[in-house]
Specification:
53% strand; four-stranded mixed β-sheet; Immunoglobulin-like; single chain; 115 residues; mainly beta
Length: 115
């Protein structure tokens, strides 16, 4: 398997149905920033993704997602395989952050299956 491809929200990814593709989803645009706080009383904690859930919609159920992961504070990962030639699928990733109050963000990209 080749190195992971980095994708961003709204991207169109080309995928060969005979290959297994590892994707890193850059979620830095969704990562909230915290206002400065009094570090004597409350130490500042870097904002990071702590939960990640994946879903897929498309013309059929032949595109498969597996091996979900959180690879950094702003990046999640998923492995895709299969799919129907010429079809487009939407892959969504809902993430949660270590903020208080907690924050959730949902974003997606599309997968075009081509040989």
């Amino acid at each position: 398997m080749a190195d992971p491809r980095v994708v961003t929200a709204g991207a169109l990814v080309q995928h060969d149905p005979d290959e297994v593709t590892m994707l890193h989803f850059d979620r830095s645009a969704d990562t909230p920033t915290l206002a400065p706080i009094d570090t004597i009383l409350l130490p500042r904690v870097p904002v990071a993704v702590i939960t990640s859930a994946w879903s897929i919609t498309g013309p059929d159920s032949l595109l498969t997602l597996d091996n979900p992961a959180i690879v950094s504070a702003t990046t999640t990962a998923i492995r895709i395989s299969g799919g129907t030639l010429g079809r487009i699928y939407s892959v969504s990733n809902k993430i949660g952050f270590n903020t208080n109050p907690s924050r959730i963000a949902d974003a997606s990209f599309r997968v075009l299956v081509q040989a």
